[in-house]
Write a structure and sequence with these properties.
Length: about 375
């Protein structure tokens, strides 16, 4: 039997029989969506688990990002990072907003706060940073700039489920934070997402916006969208939440083994966790530097030949795509750190069911080039 193909991630799936009682409940109540009992339970459970005030569940994070911008009435220009999944910038274009890209910090690969101020114009209304790989942005520096220039801050926190720092949940920073529960993320509901918001009034506005702008049977107050999460997805979220602690523990172990075994490999840099307090180990990015015998793409191919499918998150940069590349801020000369990272990064497989022998096989492929 040939060994199984190893992907960068694999969803943690609870035993199928554990999901049956949830399905039975949906079948018996016949409530399928529109803020049903599982939707309510999951919102409450996530508020408690994540230590946040309010959560609005969504069908996916992209619609949540689009809605978050609407809820904050963002327009004009928004400062963001090119080093992310393309949905970050797409959410701006869907709102007719012009993205303004600034470079990232070499240590975290998150937006570099020192570069934000010079990108602000009279049209700037907000900053949209990303907690890339779940590593916290410099939230204090970003907020300081936002306060001075009266800008909103909306975090794309798609990678940051459960991440905390000394001051608590990373999701409690800025005006809103958006989570993704896509199948490839640490906590998944097949498809899904959420907006984390600080107060009940904004939650109400977001809840209206995700339900067509409807506030009552006869009243529609905004041109809303359908962003609702269904009962099946919410029920699966409730079940997933039971296993999240074990899943994170397993991810933490894998993260530690990679770090230990790759520490001595010249030219391979593992991105540091800024806070070991509560990372979520959602990704394991390595940077393949010039001292390593192979370029990143050659290592990528070599791994693929061995049945190991690492991913080049985030290559190409968002600014390489045709709808962005002609923007002045997308010029390569504006983004040297992001370009270097995009050319060196490789996200290695990390997920709870990755076996010790599979992990060793991956590490051996990286090490045998030296
Ligand atoms: C996954 C992801 C999204 C989009 O999430 P969906 O739930 O798939 O819409 C947005 N931003 C980042 C950074 C992501 O990784």
């Amino acid at each position: 039997m040939s060994p199984k193909t190893i992907y960068v991630t694999e969803a943690a799936m609870p035993p199928l029989e554990d999901f049956i009682p949830y399905l039975q409940q949906i079948w018996s109540t016949k409530i399928l969506t529109n803020g049903g009992p599982f939707h309510q339970q999951l919102e409450a459970a996530l508020c408690a688990h994540l230590n946040v005030n309010h959560i609005c569940l969504f069908a996916n994070a992209t619609i949540a990002l689009v809605t978050a911008l609407q809820a904050m009435r963002i327009s004009g220009e928004v400062i963001t990072t090119p080093y992310s999944f393309v949905a970050t910038a797409h959410s701006l274009l869907w709102n007719g907003i012009k993205p303004v890209f600034v470079d990232i910090s070499p240590d975290t690969l998150n937006i570099n706060p020192d570069k934000i101020e010079s990108a602000i114009t009279p049209q700037t209304t907000a900053i949209m940073p990303v907690h890339c790989y779940g590593h916290p942005c410099d939230v204090d520096a970003i907020q300081k700039i936002a306060d001075i220039y009266n800008l909103k801050v909306i975090y794309d926190a798609a990678h940051a489920f459960g991440v905390t720092t000394e001051t608590g949940s990373i999701l409690n920073h800025g005006d809103l934070s958006v989570l993704s529960f896509h199948a490839t993320k640490v906590f998944n509901t097949f498809e899904g997402g959420a907006i984390v918001c600080p107060d009940a009034k904004i939650k109400q506005r977001i809840d209206n916006l995700k339900n067509f702008g409807i506030v009552s049977q006869v009243k529609v107050v905004a041109p809303g969208i359908n962003g609702k999460m269904s009962e099946i997805n919410a029920a699966f979220g409730m079940l997933q939440l039971k296993g999240i602690k074990n899943a994170l523990q397993r991810r933490r172990e894998i993260d530690a083994i990679y770090r230990e075994q790759l520490a001595q490999v010249r030219g391979i840099r593992c991105l540091e966790h800024s806070s070991e307090k509560e990372a979520n180990y959602s990704y394991f990015p390595i940077l393949v530097g010039s001292e390593y015998p192979l370029r990143r793409d050659a290592l990528f191919e070599k791994l693929a030949d061995a049945g190991i499918h690492a991913r080049r998150y985030f290559y190409p940069l968002i600014t390489e795509f045709p709808m962005y590349r002609s923007l002045p801020s997308a010029a390569p000369s504006n983004l040297p750190v992001a370009i270097k990272a995009a050319n060196e990064v490789l996200c290695m497989p990390i997920y709870p069911d990755l076996s010790r022998s599979e992990l060793q096989k991956i590490i051996n492929v990286i090490r045998e080039s030296i």
